[in-house]
Amino acid sequence: MKYTxxxxxxxxxxxxxxxxxxxxxxxxxQPGFVSYEHVSGEYGKPGAVSNFTxxxxxxxxVLTETIxxxxxxxxxxxxFGGGSMKNIVKSYFKSIDENTTSYESDNEFHMKGAMKIxxxxxxxxxxxxxxxxxNNFKAFVEKGTSVAS
Length: 149
Description:
Elements: E1 2-9, H1 13-20, H2 26-29, E2 33-40, E3 49-56, E4 59-71, E5 75-82, E6 85-97, E7 100-111, H3 113-121, H4 123-143
Antiparallel strand pairs: 1-7, 2-3, 3-4, 4-5, 5-6, 6-7
Helix pairs in contact: 3-4
């Protein structure tokens, strides 16, 4: 399953990318984010591996992130793996003018077992969740709005 989510953020490119690239900001725009742990590779470089822990309701979920491309401020691409799912997220940033930035998130999911059935039955749920993250990020950058509790 593949889809794209995009928003226009009314802040300069460098400010948007700086907030995106700071792992301490994840809690402000990714609901359920608990922690980040660098595991291997050179931090921030392609091949680097990290674990992200989320709390979804009462269930703890750990996703392993592998950086595929880090060509910021233009592109940051990663692969997330966990259980029966793999998700490739390609994030693109483009300056529209000195105070406006385009943020596009290309998502590609590969699923097995029950997750594959869920993805087939409810593909809109995945895009909807991705749009929540994109819109949360926009609100955090533009207004300082945080989803952290």
